[in-house]
Amino acid sequence: MDIQLSDEVSQAYLSEVGDILRNKEFLSLSLYEHHQWTTRFMHSINVSYISWKLARKFGCDEKVAARAGLLHDFCPYDFHKKTPTGEHQAFYHPKAAAENSERIFEINEKERDAILSHMFPLGPIPKNREAWIITMADKICATLEGCHIAIALARRNRVVVISASM
Ligand SMILES: [Fe+2]
Ligand SMILES: [Fe+2]
Fold this sequence. Notes:
The chain is mainly alpha-helical and 166 residues long. The protein is 51% helix and 7% strand. It is built from seven helices and four strands. The protein has helices at 11-21, 24-27, 40-57, 62-71, 89-104, 109-116, 129-146; strands spanning 2-5, 33-34, 38-39, 159-162. The strands form two sheets. The chain has a two-stranded antiparallel sheet. The protein binds fe (ii) ion (2 copies). One fe (ii) ion binds at residues 72-73, 93, 118-119.
């Protein structure tokens, strides 16, 4: 599994998240449906890209916004299945995403907090500006995905996941 990126994707953005986008376990998010219409991978990269852009615009830490945005739903499993703790998926999956992110990538405290609070008001309140940006970007993407509207990197084949057999 690999990704193809068009020239329209900012190199400055890719320099912040390239290691995550080359990781096979992360790319496996493309196998999971998300918001009935897209994949968890496409949703995550859109949340990340929009968060990165907003962070640049408002003078926040764009690297934290890009990386935590990309990792906020890093959960390669079926969301319809029961959670191991019995918690509702809305409360469980941010913790699973933070754990997976810590296991595979070096995330800092700010990134961890942003991942854990992205479901606000379901779950903890965001502790920093980057976390607020991510929780807002997540809701914007979820709303548009719910309306079957392709935005940001989901448009014009800007990002395409290809399987190894292709
Ligand atoms: Fe989520
Ligand atoms: Fe999300």
